[in-house]
Amino acid sequence: MNMIEAPGGLTDFTEDQAKDWSDLISRFIDRNISDYGLTQFFNPTKTEIGGDAAEKKIDWSAFPKVVEIASGGSDVLRWSTADGNRLLRQDEYCEWHVTRNDAGKIEKVEFTSEGPEYWSFLFDQDPEKVLAHYHKYVDPSVVIADVVDGNGAYNPSNRWNDPKRGGKLAHLGHVNNTLGAFVNIGARSTIIRQRPDGTIMTGETELIDCGLYGGRDRHSDPHIGGEVNALARVGANITMANPVGLSMDGLFPLNWEVPDGSDPRDFWHVDRGIVAHQMRTRYEVPADRGFVVGDIKINGREIQFGAQITDFIRVKLVGIAHEFGKHLAAPRACEDVAGMMRAGGPAPLPAGSTVPASERMLSMLSAATR
Length: 370
Hints:
Blueprint: H1 15-36, E1 54-61, H2 65-70, H3 75-84, H4 86-89, E2 95-100, E3 106-112, H5 116-125, H6 127-137, H7 179-188, H8 204-211, H9 220-232, E4 237-240, E5 247-251, E6 256-257, E7 268-274, E8 277-284, E9 297-298, E10 301-302, H10 306-310, E11 313-322, H11 337-340, H12 357-367
Antiparallel strand pairs: 1-11, 2-3, 3-8, 4-11, 5-11, 6-9, 7-8, 9-10
Helix pairs in contact: 1-7, 1-12, 5-6, 5-12, 7-9, 7-12, 8-9
């Protein structure tokens, strides 16, 4: 059977750690299947993928739709709002941090799609490796005590991952941007839904409103749910393709003007992950080119906000389906709030509790699903 690979093909793990990660995500998949009574979502570590398997890329804009809706059509307002507080605004599984020079021009914009659960797991396995990542990507002065909670466990909300407290960008920090939420949405959207008159739902918005998964005013969640549900409606058995996780699909510039006429994609760097699954990226012009990111124009306007670049970034997940036509489940009516809550599973951990790391991680994955 397949192991569940680390998001983005990341290579932080030893062989034993990679197996432990696979086991952890496998347990979380099983919990979703059990809690929601799923028959069209499978665990790839326990079910062989059939010869008719087909992959499905599902992608969306990295720019937060909730900000678009609130900005009344003003580009400057939506860009400045999205740049202002990533922990509150950047909820499309992509967050970014802007670095400016003394003249106020943008020199670098860093982006991430790495979930907090991955970093927590890696810290449990190898805290020094996590510290090395902080030194490389955030600040060389970070020490272990800065990134742990009162119990010595990794704290994803530490100040170095919070720009409002002097930090920068280690990994995703918005409450909705978690691996647990992504798996849960994918799992629950395999449920076929019917309207009160017995007809089958097909629209992205009606499906998410009916299934009560994710946020309806996002580019990501309704689209994920709609695309996965379309596979379910043709009777497929569905799961996530390796490497399991969300990633950036890349930068797709249109109507960009670089001062020296070069390709704007030349300044897009993949710092973590592989080209096909980009986990941490950076938009930065080499110092010897004589200009900075803020001198590049998009649609005739100089780049003044990191969000202008985000308009041209796509985020994705890849699903896999097989045994088409063999797993068509009976449709269900819409959920209510009580039905949305998981019947079992761990309660939030009380302060000061001591539990095995594996159980704490499973609780962390589950937290975004209730």
